[in-house]
Amino acid sequence: MKIVIAPDSFKESMTALEAAIAIEKGFSKIFPEAEYIKVPMADGGEGTVQSLVDATNGRLIEKSVTGPLGEPVKAVFGLLGDEKTAIIEMAEAAGLHLVRPNERNPLHSTTFGVGELILAAIDYGADHIIIGLGGSSTNDGGAGMAQALGANLLDKEGREIGFGGGALSALNRIDLTNLHPGLAKVKFTAACDVDNPLTGPNGASAIFGPQKGATEEMVAELDANLHHFAEIIKRDVNASVNGISGAGAAGGLGGGMIAFLSAELKSGIQIVIEESKLRDVLCHADLVITGEGKIDGQTVRGKTPIGVSKVAKESGIPVVAIAGTIGKDSGKVHDFGIDALFSIVPGAVTIEDAMENAKVYTEQLAEQIARLFKKNFSKNETL
Of 266, 290, 323, which residue is a domain's last? Predict the structure, then answer.
């Protein structure tokens, strides 16, 4: 038997690799001779760096970069096993979690640190850089990132504009003369699982601004500034970013990556599937086990379990999904290739208990699933 274990992380309780190890422990009690292949997964958001590093035997690299409010922060990026592909989560340098709730203000927060991480990855020899867009505190359209990479964003007096989405109103001209020459040798991919455009009622400011501290008046200002930024980009960089699906991701960083890095925007889970070589791993598998912290009706919109199940179903492999919580409309996942769905929680427990004992509960559930699978597997073998 060949069993592929490909879960996402269970937020705040298990990394994807830890979840996979727990599942293998439970299954191996019933199938000790089976071949187990663990493929830690993610969908472009939190945990993507760790998952791909684990899946490819890569390594983590820590750097001090400029945080969202201009202060230094420690950020980590991954260098995958090929030593040529780097994976960056933009939230490491510009995430909402780095800003205290009473200080959140996307008029001032910057993506400058994201650019610094890109330069660090280039210094380590990366020729393909994947950037996960999610969890941002910013709404600057990637202006800060561009400045870190050597672009000059100038006002009418020829001075560099400041940080944040609020400063974009002063932008008069973009000069790429000093852009880092190493960028031209690098392929950039943005891991993006939202399709919001840069501006408008469904744009970065209107949809995501409020959760970053923007008032109604600030949303209007930020949206107007991003529109202005897009117009200057079109004139000076010869790139059209307004109206492009996904350009509004991470406060418009998706648009900035298109403009300044010629990046391709792709589904996060599809990127992880490709980089982990999941299709190759699934060859001749008898069962796939996937999962994440919560599975509900939103899971079908590009989350890890659905991405994994779609690939498995290409070869007719049965798929079992496990979750910490099974939420509303979770039954939708069965229409997308997941054959059975289980919660690791054994009963009425506190959230603290569920988090603390997640590995134990996962192992216990995996053993029970294995017992059921063994009975059916043995029956089929007999037949």
Answer: 266
Helix (H, G, I), strand (E, B) or coil at 109: coil
How many separate domains does the chain show?
2
Query: Tokens 């780097």 identify what position?
Result: 86
Strand 173-175 relative to strand 72-79, pairing: unpaired
Return the residue matching tokens 């050597």.
150
Ranges in the chain, pLDDT < 50: 382-383
Note whether 30 and 62 are same-domain residues: no
Q: Which of 82, 13, 116, 9 is nearest to 357 (CA)?
A: 13
pLDDT of res. 381:
56
In a domain, 150, yes or no: yes
pLDDT in tens, 51-96: 899 989 999 999 999 999 999 999 999 999 999 999 999 999 999 9
Residue 380 pLDDT: 58
Nearest in space to 168 (alpha carbons), one of 207, 206, 98, 223: 223
- Asked if 20 and 114 sit in the same domain, the reply is no
Dump the DSSP string for 228-251.
Answer: HHHHHHHHHT----TT-TTTTHHH
Residues 62 and 37 in one domain: no
The counts of H helices and E strands in the chain are: 13, 13
Structural domain ending residue among the three candidates 266, 294, 321: 266
Is residue 274 assigned to a domain? no
Task: Classify residue 383 by its DSSP letter.
Answer: -
In angstroms, how far is the first alpha carbon of the chain from the final one? 17
Can you read off the two tokens belonging to residue 5?
């274990």
Shared-domain flag, residues 328 and 235: no
Same domain? 258 vs 220: yes
- For 66, the domain range is 48-266
| pLDDT tens digit sequence for 102-124 | 999 999 999 999 999 999 999 99
CA distances from 86 to 153, 158, 159, 352 (A): 27, 35, 33, 35
Q: Can you tell me the distance from the alpha carbon of 143 to that of 153, in angstroms, rounded to the nearest whole number?
A: 8
- Write b or e for each residue in 191-214: b if 16 or more Cβ atoms lie within 10 A of its Cβ, otherwise e: bbbbbbbbbbeebbbbbbbeebbb
CATH of the domain at 209: 3.90.1510.10
* Helices marked H in 277-344: 278-281, 304-313
